[in-house]
Amino acid sequence: MDKTFSIVANILLQIIPTTSGEKEAFTYYRDGVICAEALQNYYEAMRLEIDPYDRSYILYNIGLIHTSNGEHTKALEYYFRALERNPFLPQAFNNMAVICHYVRLSSLYEIAEAWFDQAAEYWKQAIALTPGNYIEAHNWLKITGRFE
To answer: According to DSSP H, which parts of 49-108 are helical?
Structure first.
């Protein structure tokens, strides 16, 4: 359903005469509808799914949606919950590190270093699970003296 909606919406945007502002507004609306529907579907999947491993991926995906919506606190909560069920999700550690890094860049200096330190810890865990991935994070750890 989500894919069909996106395809039809894209076709309509191409054939209906609209201004660039209207097209941009519709794009945000379409993406919001897709995210809202996806969240509803993931919440329903959580209600039905009993396997902890499968639930971890559902929780991770909910975290992704909250991340893309800029809801960092909610995203971190869902990534933590996913890792409680499956501690071998390097992508969850990576996303948590990215959030911490982002928050650090937009924080006051007093609390900023703590966010960078937390980002470093998450990236170390992601790299430990999948050596060779997250090369930019690995380089950042070396440059900032946080790689041991």
So the answer is: 52-68, 72-85, 90-105
